[in-house]
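Hello again, I could really use a second opinion on something today. I've been staring at a protein lately and its backbone has me curious. Can you walk me through what the tokens say about the fold? Take your time with it, there's no hurry, and the full record follows here:
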Amino acid sequence: MGMVVTLATFSPMKLSQRIWVLLAGLVVLLVVWEVWSRRPRDLGTRKLADGSVLTLKAATYEKEHRVRAGERWLDYLGPILPEALAKKLQCRFLTIGGRTNALDLWLVRNDFPTATASGLRGAVFDEHGCEFKSVPAVVSVSLGSAREVLSFQFTEFPRRDRTLGFRLYEQANDGTWFTLAEFVMPNPGQRPHPVWPAASLPLTQTTGGVDFTLLELKGGLKAPNDYPSASGARARFRMTENGQPTAAWEFAGLNRIRDALGQSVAGSHTVSMPEPGDCRVRIDAGLCTEEAAWKLEVAFARAKDFPAEDLWTVPFVPVPERTQASGGETRTNLHGMEFSFRGIVGAFCPEPRLRRSLSGSPVAYMVCTNLSESWQLKLVRALDDQGRQVESGGSASAPPDYLFRLNLAPDARKVQCMFAVTRRVPVQFVAKPSRAIAADSRKLESP
């Protein structure tokens, strides 16, 4: 009995189709490999104490970048394919960055026990060790499987240096901050910039017969608030009138600190005057102290001896119960601005909402809908119905509302208030800053 052998045959058409499919697949693989090989390389990886792994994926200037936001194989193509194709294929990804004149950093944290981004802040520092103000993450997304994406954006950062550093801070349970990780990378925002000339301190500006002198300007201080970076500054001024120290003027505000790089910062500040004419300001903002000059834009205002046209005395109004507010309204116009005195608000009255920042004491309540930024409203004096001077324990404002704390005696029944509306005098200094504590500055070194 003979053996029958059957040979499989392929039609020319089917073989041609398979070849084309293989060629098309090969082309796709080559394209994907080419795009993948050109993707940005990681800038560093750190193993943290809790066992998690933190990777700095990219640092870009004025450029968008995409981050994988899923675990499917298509999601891995999301950051590397053209955006339109990635969306068509329904790849899951996040788009980060791209803001004009801003530096963006993004990181991925894997294998962490719990999400901790709410207690994280990032700060950049330069080759001199100057650290810029820390910021919270602008993007913080948990992607499952103990994977978290963090993105930080900085509008103030080193712009002259070839390299820059990044510190990630974490807040402990007791409220203190510590360095969680540190990276050094090429600076994507390096550009040539002009250099401002600066005169030596002290510098004096004279306005209206009053001399305002900048005696000291230092950076690299810990900020007055609880933020971790050493980005604060300190300024000291002397105010003299007719050659003598004067208590008739006060520091009225920090407008901003600028540098030749086009950067500008403004922060909260605290003021102390240990003696007449000696004004010391601690600022929650600063720039690189190695810059040739900062431009310090501040304002001063009269604190006493006001001209009559700046003053308004409100007649006696009753002191309300602790949970109530005195009724009535008194109006006036000063320097083209409309003021409405709404009376005294009791220590535990819930309105207006702004009074919660001055809770526990009665407050004088003023409203002005058109108070210009070049003017300021000040409570000059308050008297009770027994002729006693009432001390003011601070103020709060959220235009159009302005509140002034009154430390009233328990038996006070009525209060009379005198207000001043006085012009802020802008003053500008261009000066070379110095570093507050050189020994505390950290140089830019790879860990």
User: Anything to note?
Assistant: Residues 1-10, 34-38, 438-447 have pLDDT under 50 and may be disordered.
